[in-house]
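Workshop exercise sheet. Pairs work together: one partner reads the sequence aloud, the other fills in the structure field after running the prediction. Swap roles for the next sheet.
Pair: D.N. / O.F.
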Amino acid sequence: MHPQLRAWAQLVRVPNTLTACADVLAGFTLVAGAWWQIPGIATSLILVSVASICLYWAGMVLNDVNDVEVDRAQRRNGPLVLGHIPVGRARTAGWVLLISGVALAGLAAFLLPSPDSSAPLWIVLLLAALLAIAILAYDSSLKAKPIGPLLMGLCRGLNLLVGVSLGACLNWPAELDWPSIVFATVGHVSFVAGITLAARREGILQQSPVRLLASWSVSFFGVVMIALCSRWSVGRELRLEPNTLFPLLVGLLALPWLRRAIVSIHAPGIGTLVPAIKQAILTIIFLDAALALQYGGNLPGLIVCGLAIPTLALSRIFRVT
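Structure field:
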C-alpha cells in the first residue's frame, strides 16, 4: 500500500469505519422493518451509509488535529505527529468530510422512494447536523472533561437516530415504536460512553481496577438496554421472542467482550485493556446486527453482521484505537 494512503487510513481509523454504517442501518431497520422488499431503497441506504462514514472519518481526523500537540508531547506515533500528513491538510479534510456527511444524509432523505408528501425529510438533515455538532464538541477541549465520554456516546446515539429518522420518513405517517427507539438509543449511548471511559487512560501501564469496573459497568448497562428494547415494542412483527430469545441472543453476542472486560479488571494493564477495547468496538456491529435481525429479518441481520468480516480483516493491518 502507498505510504500516503496508509497514513490516511490510519488517521481515520479505517478498521472502525463500518461500525458507523452498522449503527445507521440498524436504526433504519428499527423503523422500516423488512426494507429489502421496497423498490429503490438501496440508493438512500447507500447514501446514508456513506454519510455516516464521512461523519465518522471527520470525527477521527479532527480529533487528531485537536490533539496533535499533546500527542507530540507524549511521543505518540500518529500520522500527524510523524509528519506523514500536514496538520492543515488534515483539518481541511476533516471539515470537508463533516459537511459532506451532513449533505449526503439530506440527499438520502430526498431520494427516498415515494415518501409521503407530508413526511418531514428535513429531520434527517437536522439530526445529521446535530451529529456533526456533537462530533465537534467531542473534538474540542470538552473531550478531557467529565462530559467527554457522554459526548462520544451521544455521537453514536445520534448516528443511530439518523437511520431512525430516515426510516420514519419512509413509513410516514405510521406511528413510531418509541419504546424500541428509546431503549436502543440509550443502549448505544451507554455502551460507547463506557468504552470511551475505559479507553481514556489506555496508554498508562498501571490501570485502575475500580475505574475499569465503573467504565465497563456503563457499557454493560447499554447491553442490557439493547437486550430489552423489544420488550415493550408495540404493533411490530418481531423475529425473536422479546422476553427470552432476543435478550439471549444479545447476551451471547456480547459475551466475548464481557469476558475480556472482566479479564481487564482482574489483571489491569495495557495488555488486557487494549484487547477489551477492540472487542467492544467489534461488538457494536454484532449488537446492531441483532437489532436488524429482530426488526427486519434475516437479510438485514446478515448484511449488518457481515460488516464484521472486513472490520476484523482491517484491524489486523491498521491500528483500531
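Discussion prompt: The chain has a mean pLDDT of 93. What would you look at next?
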